[in-house]
Write a structure and sequence with these properties.
With 106 residues, the protein is of the alpha+beta class. It has one domain (2-105): 2-Layer Sandwich (Alpha-Beta Plaits). 46% of the residues lie in helices and 28% in strands. The protein contains 5 helices and 4 strands; from the N terminus they run βααββαβαα. It has a 4-stranded antiparallel beta sheet with strand order 2-3-1-4. The protein is elongated and about 65 Å long. 11% of the residues are buried. This is Panthothenate synthetase. It comes from Flavobacterium enshiense DK69.
Length: 106
């Protein structure tokens, strides 16, 4: 299952790691290990942040993705399942609407 992972990197310890020259090396190791489908760096709530898409086939893989961020950057990680357009089409929304839509609710 594809997961969107938001990673919020607090100002510290990230600033200290940047000053010591270690931040880039640690980021590279994490990204090489996780192998996200995509990763983009941004800002969330005034903090450095990253958003990535990863493939999770089993719930036991969540710590594999999150722990490097927790342990190295004291980051917060949020996991959200996401769908591709093909996934959404396979959900057969028309059939679900026919089953669950009740005209009397309007």
């Amino acid at each position: 299952m594809k997961m969107l992972v938001n990673i919020i990197l607090p100002i510290e310890p990230f600033n200290s790691l940047v000053r010591s020259g270690k931040a880039s090396e640690i980021l590279g190791r994490i990204i090489d290990d996780i192998k996200p489908e995509s990763i983009h760096f941004t800002e969330i709530e005034g903090n450095r942040a990253a958003t990535m898409i990863v493939e999770i086939s089993d719930a036991s893989q969540i710590p594999v993705v999150a722990e490097p961020w927790f342990l190295n950057f004291e980051a917060a990680c949020e996991f959200k399942p996401v769908m591709t357009p093909d996934d959404l089409m396979r959900a057969d929304l028309d059939k679900l609407a026919a089953k669950w839509y009740d005209v009397h609710l309007l």
